[in-house]
Structure formats: structure tokens, C-alpha cells
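#structure-requests
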Amino acid sequence: MKKRGRYHELPRGGYVVETSAGRIQFGAPPETIKDSLTTEEGVPEIFVLPREMFNWSKGINVADMEFPIYYHFFIRGRRPLICGTQAQARRLAVALQEAVFGPRDFDLRDDSIDIGDDVFVPDIRGELTFFRGDLTLKSLFRYRPFSDGSIRIGEVTITINDEDDYEVRDGDEHIATVPGRVSYTARFDVGQTLAEPFKPPRFGVTCLGPSHGFDPGDNTSGFIIWLNHNGIMVDPPVNSTEWLLSSNVNPKFIDSIILTHCHADHDAGTFQKILEEGRVTIYTTKTVMESFLRKYSAFSGESPEHLRRLFSFQPIYIGRPLTIHGGEFDIFYALHSIPTMGFRLSFQGRSFVYSSDHQADPAVQRTMLEQGNMSEERFEQLRNFPWESDVIYHESGIAPLHTPLAFLASLPEDVQQRIVVYHIAQKDFSKINDTSLQRATFGIENTLFFPTEPSVYEDAYRALDILKRLDFFESLPVKKVQEFLSIIERRHFARGEKVIEEGTKGDYFYIIEWGNASVMKENLVRGKQLGAYEYFGEVALLTGSTRTADIVADTELETIVIPRDRFVNFVSGTEFGRVLQRVIDRRDNRTWNLLVESEAFAHLSDYQRMWFESYLEPCSFPGSTTILEEGEPLPGLYVVTDGLVEAWNGDGRKRTIERGGTIGLLHRIMRGESSQYTYTAARPVEALFMNRDDALELIDRNPGLAMRVGI
């Protein structure tokens, strides 16, 4: 831990203060319990919630109390003390209800369509009751609210100051000023970093982490299914994107998520992925989705309706197969303490099963049957687990919520050979001897590849997959899609090879299928980085000018190219052609440098900056001019390029905005809200402006931008 004055900063985030009342932790980002578990003092028993419970710049909950509560209650037999405001108490109660006990009211018939004799819809409410027993939220932890901005714990007094930070006094001594807002630093093991960018297989599985939330020695569980060269994240842990980048895997290969349930070690990384480029699709049942939205609405303070706008939701129905990238998924509800789905995946005659968190011990299932917590039909369904599948990712852990490792080791030898044990620490797995079970091994270099054959439509499928990922191409009519397939060619470039040379005549439009390239041009604070599904070369083709920059292959590079005449004819009269022309007209080195240097745009990728740039138009305001009045509807977003803007509101809050700062926030524009301040040009101001309609169009294609620009 880093020591800052009288408090310590945890490696992942959050702060710990030593007091006479005990060690007090302020803020709890995901997995910070792993930091505490490695210390001599152990996990603090007193927690103070941060002033803001959700960090939008990181896309994570920084008041993640699930595992500290589980640890103290289930392992130490104690009730931790949590401190915060009354409003935070209500929000925390809503979130923990979903995570610990599941929805208060649900009906799995909502997760099925076309119900007939061949579809069994289990009633799992009795199962949840079995696991819950006599527990209530109050029996798991204690909560003490602040009163008039202050709280007392023994001789310790914690007060919220005017800067929204915490002043900590122990008796008569002031011992610390602790930040009220919590940052987050990713910590994870990578394994091997590939020398060349990863090429997604036709069918494979990559383990992101094999263990659980209490294991400080390994990454928390999560994995990627690769189908037809596309990635589907399953229950992504936090830091998944950083893990991919560090492993030399382009995150854009991941276009969807399967969310099986709403425990923190399974859903914590989902919002991180939502807030990246493009619009991600989440596959889950309606029951799990509604629980997820209620939980993260409570943490973030945003309405479920608003959160749903940030991604595409594809409902999964039990009893009916779902096809994703050519793979057929059969969904079933596992046996767990909250609604949890597992699945069996079939592709080209091969099968893969994921149990999700699941109690597979027949003895426990028999007890639940005899006590009336499940029906005979449900008991038979659980007994008929698809053990015959080629590869079985099966969880294991502490009973009664998880499957005992001893049970998996008791299965027939041929079944054990197909099981990959998952969600378990190495020290616990090592306790079993004389077994054919294997533990999941994380790392891109340990990706499991299933033997497959290319389909007759594979080239067309890959081309269409690239086409659908290009901005503004999704609205193309079928005849234009057919035309695209007929005009494309493929070209390979070696590492270091110059793909385009500045000053030469334009002959091709390029789309990167695999690999990385750099845009090299004078007067840029740094070059632009290009990766899979990004394109270049359009300026010279549409303007008739010579190439405006060098493009160099940073790695081996596979591209789809379209000759100039074919490209011009293809985009003529289309939305994509209009947008490309706008990008060309508004592209400016000074604007690019501003977006790179400004903290307001620090969380954007180069590709997002390029599109953001295309919507900006210059404007100016003389000194002493009022730019926007408090309470006035936001007309759009301003980015200050020169000058000084002063802002104030009726509550007396004041701030100044200089180069790189913004007037207005995209998420407020998206909701049609009004200005919170009056903005005045203290001296002549030059700015760039994005009107509201353009902002909404941009947000629709990159929903995560709305929550990350200006933070």
C-alpha cells in the first residue's frame, strides 16, 4: 500500500486509515479485498462509502461491498460496519438485494417463449429460499448514516468538508484528510504478450481468469468464446480490456457479452465494455437483465431506462436455441443463490458447456427435493447435466453455494478428462490428488482451439462482419451489400512496410482486418493509431488530392482494399459518403492535437477522437458575452480552444474553463437537460461546437461517449 500522510492508498484504489476504533477503509473498488487479504492486518471491518459510488471514467462501482460483506460474514462470522449517507443506504440496499438474494419478484416464464410440452420452465424461488435461509441484509452487515455531515465511531469522528473530502479526527487529534472520490488502478496478471496481434480462431476459448474474488494470487474468473473469428465475453471481470491490450489482442474483436448472473465477480467488468467503442450487445435472460439494471442503477444513480440506452440487449430464452456467430447456444438455469444461467454451445459438431455458478452435488439437490425446495422435474433436469460434451467449464468452490471439488473428482474418468475446473484458487485445487481434472489456465497463449473447417461462406461472412462494424454502414440496402462483396480485394503488408506514402496519388481505400498501423504526419503531438475494423485512404480518393500522410504497418497487416473508382461509386449518394466528406472537410491537425491533449477526452480512443472531430465546427464569442444561461436547454457541446470562460450558478458554485475544457456534458445533452451554469466569455473565446442533433447521432453509435467525455 502507498502511504500518503496518515492514510494508506490501496494498490487498486481506496484508502485505509489506522484509528483507535480500528482500520477504516474509504471506498471499495472491485477486488480491493485482494489487496487487503495480502496484508498482515487483513481486511478492515469498517468501511466508509465514497461520495460518488460509481466511477464513470472507469465504468466501475467504487462502493463494491459484496465481497467485504461475504468475507466478514461467511468466513469470519462478523458483521462489518458500513458508513454513508441515508441516500447511499437506500441505494446500497437495492444493489445488495439483487446480488445477495436476487430479485424480490420474478417469474421465469418471462424468460421463455412458445411454451409447450417440450419446454420446461423451472420455478427456482424455492431454491433461492433454501440458500438464503434466515438471512436478511441486516443480518449481514451494520449500517451507520452520517448526521449533518458527520459520524462518530468510538473516539473517531469523520466529517465531510466543503470539498467533499473526509476529515478524520481521533479524539482531539486531526489524523487525515481522505479524498471523497475514489480512483481505480487496474491490477492483473497477463501471461504472455504475443509478438504479433492475436488472430481470433474459428472456434476457441480464452480464459481471462481461473479463480474467484477472494484469491489475491490469480485473476478473477471470466473468459472469451471465439466463434467465426469474433469474440464473445462471458461474465467479463474488471480490467478485461486492459488485459486484452496487454496481451496484444484488439478489444474490437469482442462485440458482445453473455451475462450469466449479477454477482460482483461476474458482472463487474460489463459496464467497462459497454463504455468502450461502438455499441456492445448483451445476451442474457430478461430476469438477469432486469436485476443487472436495478443493481447498477442503484450504484450509478442513473435510471434503468437510461442505462439500457447504452447498449443493445438481446434476450435469451430458455428452451429455445440462440445462434451467435454461427454457434448454437442452449440456455438453462443453474442451481445457485440468485437467478443464474449456464449454457451448452454447439459449433461444427463440437460442444462446450459452461456451468456458471452451480451447485451440482446430487446430495444437496436431493435434500432440496425432499425439503420441497424444488420439484421432481427440476431435480431430473439437474441430474441430466450435459456431461457428455467435449469440453466442460465447471465451477467449484465452497458449499453450499458451489460444487465441491470432491464431487467433480468422483465422476467417471472419461468425464473428468473433459472437465476444466473454473472459479477456484490453485491452493484449493491442489488439495485433490489422483484426478484427471484440470484447472483453467489463463492467458491468450493458452487459448483452447477446437478443430474446425472453413464454411463455404466464410470469406463472405468475414467481409460482412467487417462491413457491419464500420460506422454508418449498417443502414446500407441489400444491393449495396452485394456490391461491397463484389468490389473488395485483400492485401497483406509486412511489419514496417509503408502502406501509403504522403504526396503520392490515391489508388485504394483500406480497411484493416487484422494488425496495427500508424498515421505519420508532421505537426501532430503524436501519430494516430489504427487497428482492426478501422480504415484510411479516403481523403485522396474523394478529393482527388495526393496522400496527406504516411501510413506504416506496425505489425503484420491484413487489409481489405477497394480500388478508387469502385470506392467512389460505392459511397456516392450514401450516408457513409456524406459522413466521409464531413470528416475530410473538418479534419484539422490543431483540433486533433487539442483532443489528444485535453483531459476531457482522455478516455477516448484515437478512432473515437477522429469521429468526434468530424462533428465539430468553429465558433467565437467576444469578451463579456454570455454563451449560455443557467436553466437554458443545452444546444450542444462547446470545446474551448482559446480564451477564458467563467461559469457560476445560483448556488454560488464557480468554475473557470480554458483550452480543452467543455461547456455542456454529452450525457446531459442526451437526456435533454438544461445548463447547470451561466457561462460568460471573460475574454474573447474561440471554441468548437457540436450541435445537439449531431451529438445525439454520435452517441447513438458510441453510447459510452456520453458518460466519458468531460469527466
